[in-house]
Amino acid sequence: MHEPMGLPLQMMLSKNKPTIWGLKEKIAMKTLKKITCKATALRKVNDLVSSEATT
């Protein structure tokens, strides 16, 4: 029962691969941007806190 279902699914997946990969890449880029934004924000906060502590 697995074999007949598996083949068309595989063909569909291989046909849709470019779009799926494109979507995954877009999502990955978005998450990366979010992470880097958070990291820079955290760094700024840390800098402010450390400068406040030193003065």
Overview of this structure, please?
The model has no long low-confidence stretch (mean pLDDT 80). This protein is 96% helix and 0% strand. It has 55 residues and is an all-alpha fold.
Low-confidence stretches: none
Helicity level = over 70%
C-alpha Rg (nearest Å): 23 Å
| Biggest sheet statistics | none
Secondary structure class reads mainly alpha
Helices and strands, in order, run as H
User: DSSP strand (E) fraction?
Assistant: under 5%
**Number of helices, counting only DSSP H or I runs of 4 residues or more:** 1
Number of extended strands: 0
Shape field = rod-shaped
Distance between the termini: 72 Å
Mean pLDDT: 80
Quick gist of this model?
The protein is mostly helical and 55 residues long. The protein has one helix at residues 2-54.
Index terms:
mainly alpha, 1 helix, 55 residues, 96% helix, single chain
Write the layout of secondary structure elements.
Elements (H helix, E strand, L loop, with lengths): L1 H53 L1
